[in-house]
Specification:
The protein is mainly beta. The protein is built from 3 helices and 41 strands.
Amino acid sequence: MACSATVTSRAKAPRGRIAGSYRHDGPRMRSDTVVPSLPPRSRRARACSPLHLAPLQCPVLEESPRSPSDRRDSIISQWPWVLPHLVAADRAAWRPFEGLVMGPAAQAATYFDPTPILWAEAQSLLDPWTNLTLICRAKMSIGLSFQLFKDGVLLESVNSIAPEYHFSVEAVTAETQGLYRCRTNTGQVWTELSNLVELSGPGSLAAPSLSAGQVSWVTPDWNTTLVCRAWLQGVTFLLTREGEDGFLEEVEAPKDTKATFSIQRGGNYSCSYRTHAAGQPSPPSAAVSIEGLEVPPPPSLSGKDTGVQRPGTSLSLLCTAPLSGVHFQLRRGEEVLVVTMHTSSPDRVYFDMTSLTPADSGIYTCRYQLPMHVTWSLDSAPLELLISDETLAAPELLAEPSGHLRPGAHVSLRCQAPRANVRFVLERQGACGHQGLDRQSPEGSVAQFDLHNMSVLDSGNYSCIYVDLTAPFPGSASSEPVELHVDGPLPKPQLRPLWQGPVSPGHNAVFRCESSLSSVIYQLLHDGEPVNRAVKRATREEEMVLTYVGPQDAGKYSCRYYIKGLDFWSEPSDSLELQVAGVGGGKGIAGRGNSMCKGPGADSAW
């Protein structure tokens, strides 16, 4: 069903306090705009919430293979306002991947997050509280609408043909101080809300924010950066390090609201700012910890199918680094492998394992090398790949108990092979497809697999297989399947609040949804309706942030989860109540949206 993305209500600004104006400087795109490529598969997350719509990252494409030009045409037909901003990928970021095969989606187009930027400009930095202007700058410049929010409530909605809009604040008073955000609309969809700007009381400065650049670690030959952001343009930024007196560095930003510091040492850093040389510094930001390492940390290595492979099949192994623009390497033991690679993003690469044979069985790791450096990162966690040629006799699998089971049951599966010194694998064909569940190398010819706390998710046909541990690594056929069926609904999740007392308007409320199952997709519900624009994928728990809480967010919340391959959601958790400070039982204006996208709304990274 269609998602409504239009907000027509407009709150009248306080008389004499906030008024709108705009300045048209022509089309522009910030030089620091991040331009990610399309993911290797189309994602089906749809933006459903009028206040928090997804950034330009999820056009709904068909799943069938299509040529790059077809994919590009599909994007343009569904998102025509993207056309002026479809650009080639940043060459510097992609240079380490020259020679790799790009996925079809990555070849088709690249585009960016259109979330606008909000900041304040003062008529005089000597007294910034007397005459302020809030500037909302869009990243697109065609047919824009602007909305300004204060403490989670829509304050002003205007139309403009300019790429930015100026909201004038005569003075910071008790009436105008608060937490502000803005968003824009090109006639197709509202963007995400902008960064937050806090106008504190007269004579006081809100603390800045401090964040790490690509990574939060340094090595002897690799530096990182820290970015300090303030709400006001033209200030001087000050960097401090825990345990050291004074300021490490001062950076003036006459035409910006942020400063970037190069970091060579580990430690706990914070920043502040001042509006003029004789002014007092603002309160410090929250501390950011930079870890000092001898070598870069390990990447991650994963594969889609965790079961035993058959000769002649193909498999892609995904290696993901914590930063972009690195050189990747795949190894089996200590042997460096030369295989075909393709990528969809500068921080990851797919190693294509084709026409597998039993000789390809083994323990695989990947690592990466920083640009212009000789030092390799630590190895990823090992991934075991087993290939069975099915030349050995099939094992026998017995389950106790078997058949229909109650939720929470315990099952023992005993796999018997005709020989010892083999590697056993337990597999399941169920609602989540074919999965390798567990592996064992017992001393004898029997492996026992214990399954605890069985749920409907564990229903399926179980089988086992074994592979000889000595060359040429022959393997068996699969055992006869054993069907296990668990009755009953999915276990109910539990929702916990990670705050205490009423939430102040404009601040965030963080929920934690917990389940006894892994690899599930969580969703937050407000009075029974989904409130998060995209569902969350997690292992056994997920923190969900309800950003920029307003009066409309007061009420009862619960969560539920969905498992890919099943056709239903779990029962909702028991509800808890979110109270918004200053709201006496009412919900305020309509807000985060009661429309709902059917289905989980997100695919896996594969």
